[in-house]
Predict the structure.
Amino acid sequence: EVQLVESGGGLVQPGGSLRLSCAASGFTFDDYAMIWVRQAPGKGLEWVSAITNDGSNTNYAESMKGRFTISRDNAKNTLYLQMNSLKSEDTAVYYCVRKTGGQYDYWGHGTQVTVSS
């Protein structure tokens, strides 16, 4: 059974940092590209970042460039998202997603990130 379990969310002040983790199981982790997607309160899903299966290439949404860093440890079957210089508009539920071809086929349950003073 494929499982993606996010952790590391919480309440942080503007300008602060958080590191999200996503523990993957039930599949060969290093065969798949992985994605972070978020959903802010009352808004639709927003693509955040992606990383290739071997970690050699990464991409970011424009508003996250220079602040967020996606990475993975294939030996630990874990995906990460380091978030720095957080803003109130980064408040959202963050989801870890497996990418298969052009589809996002498995999603975690999400972790809440709240940026507030």
Q: What stands out?
A: DSSP finds no helices and eleven strands in the chain. The chain has a mean pLDDT of 97. The two ends are 40 Å apart (CA to CA). The longest strand covers residues 92-100.
